[in-house]
């Protein structure tokens, strides 16, 4: 989840790593573009991003907003719906991919039966 969240360009200077391939080489500085799970604020940033997505999409996706706000634990959203259309649209708009899903829709259950549980909904 963290790597799917891009840090704004003007904030990337605060997420740098220093790397030296060997003792004989100079230190190289890299700016990190996505949120990286090794940094302390990563869980907060990821959760805050989800809440912002819910806030910005509350008019367009009124059923999804309370689910994200009230049914999210870490990077899992535990909920249900009559169809998957809204969930698919919102996850695409937020650039997130749904994983670890379970459903009673034939096409989805069929994918899981073939060991492709981690395949995002298309």
Largest beta-sheet details: 2 strands, antiparallel
Form type: elongated
Oligomer: single chain
Mean pLDDT: 75
Protein name: Integrase catalytic domain-containing protein
Structural overview:
The protein is an alpha+beta fold and 122 residues long. Helices cover 32% and strands 10% of the residues. The protein is built from four helices and four strands; from the N terminus they run ββααββαα. It has helices at residues 42-56, 64-70, 85-93, 106-113; strands at 16-19, 28-31, 72-73, 76-77. The chain has a two-stranded antiparallel ribbon. It has a two-stranded antiparallel sheet with strand order 3-4. Strand 3 and strand 4 form a beta hairpin. Helix 1 (42-56) packs antiparallel against helix 2. The chain starts with 15 loop residues before the first strand and ends in a 9-residue tail after the last helix. The relative contact order is 0.11. The model is unreliable at 109-122 (pLDDT under 50).
């Amino acid at each position: 989840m963290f790597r799917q969240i891009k840090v704004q360009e003007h904030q990337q200077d605060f997420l740098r790593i220093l790397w030296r391939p060997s003792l004989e080489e100079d230190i190289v500085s890299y700016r990190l573009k996505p949120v990286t799970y090794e940094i302390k604020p990563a869980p907060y940033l990821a959760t805050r991003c989800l809440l912002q997505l819910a806030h910005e999409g509350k008019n367009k996706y009124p059923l999804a907003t309370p689910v994200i706000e009230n049914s999210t634990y870490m990077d899992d959203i535990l909920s249900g719906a009559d169809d998957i259309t809204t969930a698919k649209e919102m996850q695409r708009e937020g650039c997130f991919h749904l994983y670890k899903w379970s459903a009673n829709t034939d096409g989805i259950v069929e994918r899981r039966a073939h060991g492709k549980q981690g395949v995002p909904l298309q």
